[in-house]
């Protein structure tokens, strides 16, 4: 993957063209999805799609004038500064909140991309167009904020407070939740497999400790290296990596620590396993609560998903260990 600073003007324009084309299609998908439920909002997205198409045409004309008709095959996924987002636009009947989040993320990313790209361009015409597009994306970002206001009840929300809340979620809650889910769920299988295979608390604890630390290091690096936050607005990759790694480790250690119960005690294995089972129960419900609180996932849906997934992994570990 290329660094953003290493992109040539030709590559910047080619990537901008591809991005505007993608935004045009995504906003048209949103318009189609919203047309029956929110016709006025659907028209807004149709206009946004038309603007993106206009941006694409301007960029294409300038590209052909400077570099000829053949576009460089480069996309956001080829550059480190961009985060890969799930294709939510392929899902029907999306909530306004989900659409607003996706729209705002795209517009913030586009604005930062054009502003940063303009500083690297030496061609006056290219630099002017990029700066003009950055200002246009700011207007689209305001549309996304207005969509968010439709979701609020009571007095109009304070934009600065809401921006801080979103940044807190992006930089701390999301990576922390991903880590907690991975640590709490993925370590169940090796821990309980070791427990039921050995019936030895100390050996089981060592397996849980190794699995927790290994998962924490792996998840921390994965989160930190996935996106530098420079264009996506997700904050410091170091902070996100540390948060994700620590929460992954904590999720795994939570149900590993009970196996520190000395093997010399009567029924030590049953005591440790019983305590670990209770901790697993609370871990899964905490994850469900966080998803409901910050990710707008219905609580019972979140609980069903995470508890079912955890139960399957737990059963897998027990079956393997007992075989």
From TrEMBL:
Keywords: Membrane, Transmembrane, Transmembrane helix. It comes from Methylocella tundrae. The lineage of its organism: Bacteria, Pseudomonadati, Pseudomonadota, Alphaproteobacteria, Hyphomicrobiales. Gene3D superfamilies: 1.20.1260.10. The chain crosses the membrane at residues 172-196, 202-226, 269-290, 302-322. This is Rubrerythrin diiron-binding domain-containing protein. Coiled coil: none annotated. The keyword Phosphoprotein does not apply. Residues 11-144 form the Rubrerythrin diiron-binding domain. GO terms for molecular function: metal ion binding; oxidoreductase activity. It holds the Pfam family Rubrerythrin.
